[in-house]
Amino acid sequence: MSGQESNTTGRELRISVTEEVYEQLELLAADHQVPAEEYAARMIADDVARARFLTGAREFITENADYFVERFGPRSAGGQAA
Hints:
The protein has helices at about 20-30, 35-70.
């Protein structure tokens, strides 16, 4: 999990999970020596950061795909093969 600090100024989010999910969350949190609520908040923050990164990566690829193919793609029949 990234970051060790707790965000006490953030927004509150209430969610419902099954007993089985909460028990697993408690076990994972205990492994990191933090309360289950803090562990869940870290997991959500990490997932949001990962999604933001992947969205940026997709946008970068889309914007630069043509240049990449031109620069590094297979050569024409008369040129060198990649």
